[in-house]
Each structure stands twice: as C-alpha cells, then as structure tokens.
Amino acid sequence: MDNKTYVFEGKTSTEAIEKGLKELKVSKNKVDIKILEQEDKRSFFSILTPRIVKVEMKLKENIQEEKHHKNEEKKQDVYVDKTEAIKKIKAFLEEFTAKLPNKLTYTIKEEDNIIKVDMDGEDTGYLIGYRGEVLNSLQTIISNIASKSNKEKIRVVVNIGGYREKREKDLQNLATKIAGTVIKTRKSITLEPMTAYERKIIHTKLQENDKVKTFSIGEEPYRKVVVSLK
Question: Count of CB atoms within 10 A of residue 26's CB?
Fold first, then answer.
C-alpha cells in the first residue's frame, strides 16, 4: 500500500495544493496537507527572487486502502479460468466438510469477479474463531487453492453463518460509540489490531464525521486504527 508523501510547488500554497490534488486525482478532504514553506516567510533581500511555496501531501489511510482495493479489482479483469478454480474449491470443500464433526453445507458462486463461498451449519464458531481469525485463515487457504496454476491470483471471499455481515455491523456500531467517547472526553482512542478490511470499515463509517478523524499506526498484522478529534 502506498504510504508515500508527495511534495508540490507553486507561487502560493493554494496553487501548490491545487496542483497536487489534480495530479493525485483526489479531493482536498482525502489528503493530509502540510505547508513546508509559507508565503510570508520572505525577507526584504529575497523580494526579487521568484516565489516558490512547497506543500507536502499524503493520502489518508482509508483512501490508500480504497486505491489498493480498486487496483486489486482492476487486476480481476485479467483473471481467467474461474470455472477450473471453482472445481478446485469444490473438491477441497467436499473433503474438508466430510472430516468435520458436524454437518456443514456450502454454496459457491461468482459475483462481481469474486468467487464467494458461503458456508453454514450448526456450531460453526470454531471455524470462525476469535475475531474471525480461523475464518480468515481458511479463506487464505481456499484462495491459494483456487489460484494454483493460474496466471493471476483469484480473489475469494469465504463467509460462515453470515459472520462477515455481523462483524461489519458490529464494527460500524463500535466506530460510532468510540467517536462519541472521543468527542466527550476529548482524548484519542486506539483500537485493537484489525485486518485492512476491518480498518476500512472504521475509516469509512467515520469519514463524514465532522468532529473526529481516523488514521492507522503500527505494522501488519498489528496495525491499529486511532480515532481522535479533528
């Protein structure tokens, strides 16, 4: 993911910012901006020197992740042979579910250039794990099986008992609750480590909140979202 900072120049900070936004193809609220050289810091002896103002820009965390997600979607356009990939997934699931202690049903379908595997059954909590850790590992395994011998990696999303939807709703509620606490106490709150997908849910939920902002700290897989006052 692109964490790079960009520097743009102009005769005024406004000109430099506009130039940067145009080149990065984003709106002003989607970047962090820092003025490196102010217009009013010119001495009498430099008055004849051409004015150059520099600004530093960095894409906000949620925008970086959105761009990364869009790039991944573009790659999906060249993915081939999903029929064969689905056969591989089905073969794996037949063997996998046969070894489980309880009956598990599944469906496989291709939607929006993604292979979606929905599984359901009784007492499936052990297949989900704490915060979906087991489910995410199972998704990685199935994705690797589907992509084997394929020129490009095939994107697979695995869901068990509607966990993904429940988790998204829980995270959205958490984001709202945390924002309220930050506004009330005027103190930043750092959440527990989350996957990039889960962090994006928090970023997106609070993106339009005019009183708080979000950003991420740390390295994967321990990267965390911080919610603070604007």
Answer: 16
109: which 2 tokens? 């379908």
Count of alpha carbons within 13 Å of 188, Cβ hemisphere only?
13
Query: Hey, where are the domains in the chain?
Result: 5-59, 82-161, 165-229
Domain 165-229 top-level CATH class: alpha beta
Q: Determine whether domain 82-161 maps to CATH 3.30.300.20.
A: yes
pLDDT above 60 (res 68): no
- Contacts of 88 by beta carbon, 8 Å cutoff, 6+ apart: 145, 146, 148
Is pTM beyond 0.70? Reply is no
Q: Omega into 221 within 30° of 0, i.e. cis?
A: yes
